[in-house]
């Protein structure tokens, strides 16, 4: 799988990933700005603006007009906001690619941002906040990142705070758009049954008028000053305790990021991983237990382990998880060649399966184009993974899995976090 990367006269980058066997295509427009670029006064603005784009532009002035147009081509559309980026996409038959460009360009270049719609959408976002608060399996991620990125804007929830969302007005949206929605700070990616020249022609027609002026927001580079294990408890009456424990990792630009990923897979990637077997199968302490990595920008990331457990067994589960983590690091539980081979195939297989979807293909390539100087193809990554050794993984484990760098976030029916503090220290 390969890509073509070009640049329009206005500085807008265009990425085309031809997949000739497909009848469909996904058009995604990316903005290299998310919640990390916000200030304490406008928390949640990037996410709120994502919502407002769907309220209508000059050509399609209402949410209904947009949805009817997308439904009229049998397409699907949505958007997403992260700490690093905001994106908007339409997936449809490749033959309807121009319609997708027409709709998204109107939404993003000419949004109406009506005051009455802003007021109405505040209620929607507050309900979205309430939904997350009532879904601890999702909320635990926010609490963990608030803990591990303390002191940096990465610690803030993408959705913002109730008080900041309520305070936002139309000028806030206009100013944010002027600051971030400009051609050199954006990227267009198209994957599917398309040809490069066709995509280039449509991009020039619909996005060639996007302005060049803007200024990339200056963000504080994340640097951890953690010197001892830390715990964050959210006391909540729930039937199941949810927890994430993890360690500072690295951002997208880290050379050893695939070594980190393999370490994560060995610990808790899949139903035959160490943590799944030990925590669930042998001890029955959790229904769900898994390890994963997360990366932001080129400077920040982590390796974390999630588990949902009986509140009475949370302490035992944490002990077992830490015993497996530190046992791997110390060499008590050796990594065998067969286990490494399985982990490599797991990682490569999941990437290959994900890339069967044109939207995922867009994200795979665009995520690199937004933040990295070098863009790797899936084949490049497969080769890198195949060459990783047990010695490299052990060296990474010794650097990463440091007791003083442990972070533990818990949601559960507990009145005190004292017992958790003792566990990690």
Order of helices and strands: EEEHHEEHHHHHEHEEHHEEHHHHHEH
Enumerate the strands of the largest sheet in spatial order, edge to edge or round the barrel.
1-2-6-3-5-4
Shape: globular
Rounded to an integer in angstroms, the radius of gyration calculated over CA atoms is 23 Å
Bin the strand percentage: 15-25%
- Count of discrete structural domains: 2
CATH architecture of the largest domain: 2-Layer Sandwich
Per the CATH scheme, the topology name of the largest domain is Cytochrome Bc1 Complex, Chain A, domain 1
Structural class estimated from helices and strands: alpha+beta
Q: What name goes with the CATH superfamily of the largest domain?
A: Metalloenzyme, LuxS/M16 peptidase-like
Helix coverage percent of residues? 40-55%
Individual helix count: 16
Tell me the name of the CATH class of the largest domain.
Alpha Beta
The description of the largest β-sheet is: 6 strands, mixed
Q: Overall pLDDT, averaged?
A: 96
Q: Termini, distance in Å?
A: 47 Å
Residue stretches low in confidence (pLDDT < 50, at least 5 long) are none
Number of E-state strands: 11
Task: Tell me what the structure shows.
The chain is α+β, with helices and mostly antiparallel strands. It folds into two domains: 4-207, Cytochrome Bc1 Complex, Chain A, domain 1 (2-Layer Sandwich); 230-424, Metalloenzyme, LuxS/M16 peptidase-like (Cytochrome Bc1 Complex, Chain A, domain 1). 44% of the residues lie in helices and 19% in strands. The protein contains 16 helices and eleven strands. It has helices spanning 45-53, 63-71, 97-109, 115-133, 136-148, 162-167, 170-180, 196-207, 257-268, 274-282, 314-330, 337-354, 358-371, 378-386, 390-400, 418-424, and strands spanning 4-7, 13-18, 24-31, 76-81, 86-93, 186-192, 230-235, 241-248, 286-296, 300-309, 406-412. The strands form two sheets. The chain has a six-stranded mixed beta sheet with strand order 1-2-6-3-5-4, with helices on both faces. A hairpin with a 4-residue loop joins strand 4 (76-81) and strand 5. Helix 9 packs across helix 12 and helix 12 (337-354) packs antiparallel against helix 14 (378-386). The longest helix has 19 residues, at 115-133. The radius of gyration is 23 Å and the shape is globular. The chain starts with a strand and ends with a helix. The mean pLDDT is 96.
